[in-house]
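Box S1 | Example of a co-folding query
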Amino acid sequence: MLVEGKPYRTIWLKPGDPGCVQIIDQRALPHALVVEDLRSLDDAIRAIRDMHVRGAPLIGATAAWGLYLAVIESERGNNDLEHLQREADRLKAARPTAVNLDWAISRVMSRLGSTDSSFSATARSEAEAIVEEDVEICRMIGVHGLSLIEGITTRKPDKPVNILTHCNAGWLATVDWGTATSPIYHAHAQGIPVHVWVDETRPRNQGASLTAWELGEQGIAHTVIVDNAGGHLMQKGEVDLVIVGSDRTTRNGDVANKIGTYLKALAAKDTGVPFYVALPSPTIDWEITDGCRQIPIEERPAEEVTHISGYLEQGGVAAVRLTPPTSRAANPAFDVTQARLVTGLITERGICEAS
Ligand code: MRU
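Box S1 (continued) | Returned holo structure for MRU
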């Protein structure tokens, strides 16, 4: 998508330097666009764990490129599959909830296990395939999800379609297009007036800092709201549709997504607002059927709750404490919305029931 009118992706191999993968360091957004070099598996692990990159599909793509970097490192020394499997296991531990991490690693490892070509060429071509597929999958999610927005706009012509989203399931969370945002970008390109309610998404504020930024760069009308405002806006008829992303969706349609998603789904159910989840098929975990019991929920550092950082008007970024120094804080990063609360799943193959 566009940054200052120029097309970008979130991850790419540095031109002319096959030992370097480049990412947008999302910690600096929306205040600065910082491109970071990853040159080792440890760089990739740090980028995922410390959220330089985040969002389930992009975590998967970064893991695939991270394994490619591990292969390059090991070709200078220890070039065997068992060593790479140990490296893959370290990578898998970087973040627990998004199943795309496991999926991408298993895919690259299984190609390495069956190839006659060089490991580096194989890992590179698999990482490139994962990235290109993600772009096409997200584009198709937009093509299918567009029909929902078209249906609403025919019922209220000349008025904007109001869509609420939580966290960032935009192009920054994928390689391009995004999942929840892809139908919005497609609708905007068709000239359909859309307006997005952007949940700020405490504690990491992915909505306020990332979704708002990327929507603004594409010229899409949006309003940032505090996380607790969504239910009120739904009661007032100010939300036509909710679209969120997913970090892991079970075989029966339970959805893990950023903490607070469940409360939005409850409010949507109570007020009759359609609640859709946009997800690429690699986000489906076919092995499990009970999201609340079986999906591992990441617990992140308490400092993300006790402190908040922001841009100083005179320049620079500062962190300040919000809580009394002696108060404890808990920070579960995701929650599970049961299938019964989900109106439908928007995938690259079409829209289906959460079942
Ligand atoms: O902690 P994050 O920022 O990685 O969480 C991201 C989300 O919860 C997204 O909604 C999800 O990964 C879907 S991304 C298309």
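The longest strand covers residues 194-199. The pocket of MRU is lined by residues 54-57, 98, 167, 169, 173-174, 179, 206, 245-247, 257-258, 333 (CB under 6 Å).
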